[in-house]
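Last lecture ended with a question: if I hand you only a sequence, what can you say about the shape of the protein? Today we answer it with a concrete record. The protein is Membrane protein. Below, first the input exactly as provided, then the predicted structure, then a couple of comments.
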Amino acid sequence: MAAMFGSGLANQTGAAIGALAFPVLGPLGVVALRQYVAALVLVAVGRPRPRDFTRRQWWPVLLLAGVFGTMNLSLYSAIDRIGLGLAVTLEFLGPLGIALAASRRRLDAGCAALAGAGVVVLMRPRPSTDYLGMGLGLVAACCWAAYILLNRIVGRRVPGAQGSAAAACVSALTFLPVGAVVAVRHPPTVGAVLCAVAAGVLSSAVPYLVDLITLRTVPAQTFGLFMSVNPVLAAAVGWAVLGQGLGLPEWAGIGAVVAANSVSLATARR
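The predicted structure:
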C-alpha cells in the first residue's frame, strides 16, 4: 500500500514539477523530454528486439506509440490551461469508462451516472471556463482508454515488456524533431531541463517500476481501486506545488469521479 501511494504521489509530483518548466519550454517541450526519459527507462527494462517483430506485432506497437505521445501531450496541455487536479480527473475517466463499459450491473450504471454528474460539475459554464483545456483533458482520457486496450493486445503478441519499450522508443523518435524545434525557438534553461527530466523520472520511471513490483503481490482489483486516489493527489499536489486552489464544486466533482470508481471496483465480483 505504501508503494502504491508513493507511486501515485511521485506521478502527480512529477507532473507538477514539469509544469514549472512550461514558461520556458511549453507543454510540448516538457512532453518531448519526458518521452526521451520514458524511452530510456523502458528500453533498459524491456530490452526490445525490434528486428524479431512480425508485421502482426508491429502494428499495435506503432498505434501504442502514437497514443502514448498524444496522451501525454494532451494531458500536459490541459494541465497548462485548467490545472493539475482537473486535468488528471478528466483523464481518469478513460480507465473508469473501460471498467464501467465492461459491466452489465445496475450498480455500475449508477456509478457511471455519478461520474457523469461529477464531470458536469467540473465543466459547468462559467465566465472563466476553459473549454479547450477541458476538451484536451477528455482527449487524454480517450487516449488512456486506448492505451489500456492496446497494451493488452501488445502484451499478448509481444513477450515481456518488449512491446511497451519499442512503443516508447518510436514515440521518443517522433518527438526528436519536436524537441529540436522547441530548443531553437525557446532556448532551454538548466532549471527548465531539470524540471522536465524530473517529470520524466517521477511520472514515468518510478510509477512503471513500482507497478511492476506491486502487481506481483497486489490483486489487480485492489490495484485499480487504489488508483482512485490519483485525482485527489493531483489536486493536493497542484495546490501545494503550483498554488492551484480549487473551490467546493470542483472538489465535489473530483469526489464524484473517485467515488464512482471506488464503488464499482470495491463491489466487483472476482
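Comments.
1. The chain has a mean pLDDT of 86.
2. The first helix runs from residue 2 to 19.
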